[in-house]
Amino acid sequence: MSFFPKISFQREVEEYLTKVFRNNELITALGAQEVECKYQSLLNHLSHPPSFTTVRVNTHLASVREVKKMLFEEIQKQFKGLFVPVLEHPKLQDILLIPVIGPRSDLQKHTSEVIVGAHCGYAVLRGAHVYVPGIISTSRFMKAGDLVSVYSDIEGKCKRGAKEFDGVKVFLGNGISEVSRSEIFTSSGPVNGLGIRMTEPVYLSPSFDSVLPRLLFLQNLPSVVVSHVLNPQPGERILDMCAAPGGKTTHLAALMHDQGEVIAMDKVANKVKKMKQNADLLQLKCIKAFCYDGTKALTAEEREAGQEGPPFSPESFDRILLDAPCSGMGQRPNMAYPLTLKEVTSYQPLQRKLFAVAVQLLKPGGVLVYSTCTITLSENEEQVAWALKTFPCLQLQPQEPHIGGEGMRGAGLSPDQLKLLQRFDPSAATLQGMDSDCLQECREEDLISLADKDCIGFFIAKFVKWSSQAGAGSTAPEPQHPHQVCAALPHCCQANS
Predict the structure, then answer these.
(1) Residue 486 Ramachandran class (φ > 0 left, ψ -120 to 50 alpha, else beta)
(2) Regarding beta strands 194-201 and 130-131, do their DSSP bridges make them parallel or antiparallel, or are they unpaired?
(3) What is the C-alpha to C-alpha distance for residues 240 and 172, in angstroms, rounded to an integer?
(4) Active site positions, annotated
(5) Cα separation, 409 vs 382, whole angstroms
(6) How large is the greatest C-alpha to C-alpha distance in the chain, in angstroms?
(7) Cis, bond preceding 245 (omega within 30 deg of 0)
(8) What is the DSSP string of 49-65?
(9) Do residues 211 and 67 lie in contact, with contact meaning Cβ atoms separated by under 8 Å?
(10) pLDDT tens, residue by residue, 205-262
(11) Phi-psi sector, 306: left (phi>0), alpha (psi -120 to 50), beta
């Protein structure tokens, strides 16, 4: 059931994606009809929110069972007694799943309207209230206490302060205004704080404003899987190369029981500040965050005594997470994707530069996990094929837990290689609505199976770095060209980027 129109792209991006998802390898394996059906289903899924809200429990401070009880009581208060279960995941034992009720098609629209920006609108569809900075336009005479209908300007064409808007807008639900129009648009200074309290959202999800802030971290399900796949151990030295906003960073630290060292880097100062705040809030001491460009994080020069931050010497880390900057096409909901084709294709060379640095910073025998929140071949399976060809010291590894599907055909990888990858493909689930009756009738295992499929689009690859000094008794083969390990990596990267 499609409630919103499918995601729209700029024409050249749509043509590019059409070729990707109708590639010859896919058509040969699945047939043209199934390939087309899956592609159209994906476009429809991307414009809708996932069927579940996922929260990660900060197990450093509390048990999952304790937090589950507190969260269930909070949801009962927010939903005024409406039964919504809080589910534990059998394979991800530090997350809780809350089903999303909706879409609700029986809501009556009010004459007073509020228009919000696209990103604000997407947050509302995932349970947020509307804050003043997200409001673009309101009806002429809106005052505090008014019942209003909230719409998203998905194409970004509404002018700030407009009294009416007849462009493309998507209904998000109803709420109560906390401020007047004049307070929003004629104030002598910027107005912050709550603007519209959503009372009847199209998709009913709990609000997490100030809810158990030290114990919960809102995180998409595949983003939680990544840290488990990396599997950091207490006492190890871990690098999170592109770490902001810090969800995976704090998860890695918690999995290590806050024992060892997690180095987190991002080149945007405000994001690094936010990471440090998250680490402090969750009381994790082993995280050290630095404002630094990951492509420059390697040095051949001798480091100063006592130097903690980047750049680092080769083979400095036991495990590395490269959650790479990407085109972000897997994020949900998204009804109008704004990037140009030039912007979309600009990520592949950047990812390769970061990857080459990561390989050199990794110790022999160490683990490198590469991930993105996008759906393209060029940023996912093609990067794996490039990496295996460019770096003989790398081998693909099985992933645990393996919850997503296998990799997508089209990059020339073998069937066995594709099975080692995880691609979370929203089109694998049936687009369906959920109401309270459905929740009471569904078995818990069926709900969890739906949560595994109906999430954001995401990709994970896991590599181990073997060398000529691989441990005795190892069952993995030596690289074919052991003398090439690390020594020629910068040259290889430049030649293939």
Answers:
(1) left
(2) antiparallel
(3) 36
(4) 373
(5) 10
(6) 77
(7) yes
(8) --SEEEEEE-TTTS-HH
(9) no
(10) 998 988 999 999 999 999 999 999 999 999 999 999 999 889 999 999 999 999 999 9
(11) left
